[in-house]
């Protein structure tokens, strides 16, 4: 694998307004909503770091300064914890600022996911890169991103993450029409359909928020007109690449069967917090006991 085909950089779009969580997100980015004791965005950065990605560009917007502050050093807090001998918390605080080199760029006009990715062109350059959406948290025990990077290196195209969902729920997602690749665990994507009705969906494979993209996507995004909602859709650009032969052509899918936590709406967010907390060594057992009591109507 040569250096050009090694994924070293990731783009994390984080410019959304988070309107579904108002009023909590009136002055705080939705990416900073806590999932137990870490903001959601930190789980995403940790995932990239585990996959060996050490250069991250966050595409931000207004009221996102706290993202930068979170991944920065805070000498006063660190010194206070060190003086108290609270070394576990000291390590937790320091770890966020040592995960990767993180850069920040304003999106400017809110023109959709495709536009946010396009804003990363100058930083990424002419090499494959990952895109991670903060609404999807992938369990740290699963190696989805690493698998996707390996498929990108093998195929030379772009790779998306797919997950089987209930056919009745497919209208909430982008959906993939795929063909199996003989002898391989990944699939070839023939077509992407954005939020189809259940009876028009080509499969029950939903696109989730992980991508490993060939830099050819930038050229396509530059030529992609606004689509649904007046936004530049990444799905439209991937559709073009799926039909292209040669350098940067082809889109492939990795079907993920691991643990994914959706923080995209209130109920899913609460489920994610409870699920992750219940699996924690420090509080999981007590929480599970309380949940049993609560559902039986006997909790305090």
Automatic annotation (TrEMBL):
Source organism, top-level taxon = Bacteria
Keyword Coiled coil recorded: no
Please list the reactions this protein catalyses.
alpha-D-glucose 1-phosphate + UTP + H(+) = UDP-alpha-D-glucose + diphosphate
Q: Which CDD domains match?
A: UGPase_prokaryotic
Task: Give the record's keywords alphabetically.
Answer: Nucleotidyltransferase, Transferase
UniProt KW Nucleotidyltransferase keyword: yes
A GO term, aspect molecular function: UTP:glucose-1-phosphate uridylyltransferase activity
InterPro entries linked: GalU_uridylyltTrfase_bac/arc, NTP_transferase_dom, Nucleotide-diphossugar_trans
Q: What class of enzyme is it?
A: transferase
- Record-stated family: Belongs to the UDPGP type 2 family.
Q: What protein is this chain from?
A: UTP--glucose-1-phosphate uridylyltransferase
Q: What is the lineage of its organism?
A: Bacteria, Bacillati, Actinomycetota, Actinomycetes, Micrococcales
What is this protein's gene name? Answer: galU
């Amino acid at each position: 694998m040569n250096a050009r085909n090694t994924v070293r950089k990731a783009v994390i779009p984080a410019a959304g307004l988070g309107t579904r969580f108002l009023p909590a997100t009136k002055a705080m980015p939705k990416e900073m909503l806590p999932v137990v004791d870490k903001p959601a965005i930190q789980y995403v950065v940790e995932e990239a770091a585990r996959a060996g990605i050490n250069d991250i560009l966050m595409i931000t917007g207004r009221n996102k300064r706290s993202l930068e502050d979170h991944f920065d050093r805070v000498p006063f807090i660190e010194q206070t914890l060190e003086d108290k001998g609270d070394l576990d918390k000291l390590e937790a605080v320091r770890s966020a600022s040592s995960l990767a080199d993180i850069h920040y760029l304003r999106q400017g006009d809110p023109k959709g996911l495709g536009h946010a990715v396009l804003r990363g062109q100058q930083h990424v350059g002419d090499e494959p890169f990952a895109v991670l959406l903060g609404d999807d948290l992938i369990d740290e025990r699963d190696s989805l991103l690493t698998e996707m990077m390996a498929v990108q290196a093998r195929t030379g195209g772009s790779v998306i993450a797919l997950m089987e969902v209930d056919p009745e729920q497919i209208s909430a997602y982008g959906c993939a029409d795929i063909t199996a690749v003989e002898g391989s665990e990944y699939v070839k994507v023939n077509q992407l359909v954005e939020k189809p009705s259940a009876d028009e969906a080509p499969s029950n494979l939903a696109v989730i928020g992980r991508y490993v993209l060939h830099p050819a996507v930038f050229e396509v995004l530059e030529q992609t007109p606004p689509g649904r909602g007046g936004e530049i859709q990444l799905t439209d650009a991937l559709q073009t690449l799926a039909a292209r032969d040669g350098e940067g052509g082809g889109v492939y899918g990795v079907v993920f069967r691991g643990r994914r936590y959706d923080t995209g709406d209130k109920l899913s967010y609460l489920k994610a917090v409870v699920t992750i907390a219940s699996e924690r060594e420090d509080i999981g057992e007590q929480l599970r006991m309380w949940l049993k009591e609560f559902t039986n109507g006997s909790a305090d």
